[in-house]
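Same chain as my last thread, 353 residues:
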Amino acid sequence: MNHIKGLCTLLSSLDAEALLLTSEISQRYATGFPFSDGFVVITEGESWLVTDFRYQEEATRRCRDAFTVVAPPSQSEFLRELFSEKGISRVGLEDKTLSHANYQTLTDLLGITPIPIGEGIEALRAVKDSGEIAAVRRAQALTDAAFSHILSALTPKMTEVEVALELEFFMRRAGADGIAFPTIAVSGTSSSLPHGVPARTPLSRGFLTMDFGAVVDGYASDMTRTVVLGKATAEMKRLYATVLEAQRRGMEAIAAGVDATLVDGAARSHIDAEGYRGLFGHSFGHGVGLEVHEAPRLSSRVRSPLVAGNVVTAEPGIYQPGIGGCRIENMGVVTENGFDVFTASTTELIELF
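reply #2:
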């Protein structure tokens, strides 16, 4: 899939003559083809994929209907000659991903007037089309399958690292291109660490939090489930129920046009009211797509309305330092009237061993 039409709309809105895409993520978004060395140039009438010999054959096969694929001896010289020949001087540059030095180098080398396009690219990518949504759904289906698998594969003697690897191996064997981010599998008191690193020590009794995701066709999934190793205490059950109810309230608040702060607030107010104020230290959710963290943010600090087509997570948590923590995360797509959840795994409290 490519997104030339939307990018051309952005081009016109900025009064620019060309877009020069330099980040690998934006290049894949534009072309549907992953490559790591080159540029994408988009004008209202023509588009170029500039790469090197390693990618030329495959890029030509996959992108020739929408892009002129070239592998020049000097990419910078090709760009300079192209812009000169076409009379292009006002060029959109990715100000949010280019370093200041590279931004300045491109501006000077090509003799152009740069126009920042970072926010415009983010806004385009935040609203997924049907092909993108389908890819995320496939990634989430593999993630759900991995969770079902790990429930039967877990043993008391496994280490946190082994749990993470088992999840990753399963997703790759099942067809994932790769993992969406470093897998989190933390148990016992370490479950209070939202982004804890799996240890090479046997699993500890108490909460086991697993946060993991797959990549399919470049698009990521993101899911967290917390289970109990051993028998849950009354307090653990109360904490888990609080997180689950907070997630339900937040997801119920999601719909196109709803301010993201209201979604976060619907979950956070419940956690606070149950006596866990200050123990939910991150935002309610975030966008997911070609990157596992992208726009929009469902945060108490970012005021912006949700849009139909936003693919977002719903992941409240409670973290008690030195004791343990719990997070439950679903993901889905914002619709005009609500939230279509992709995640199929149960959210019931599970006790193992």
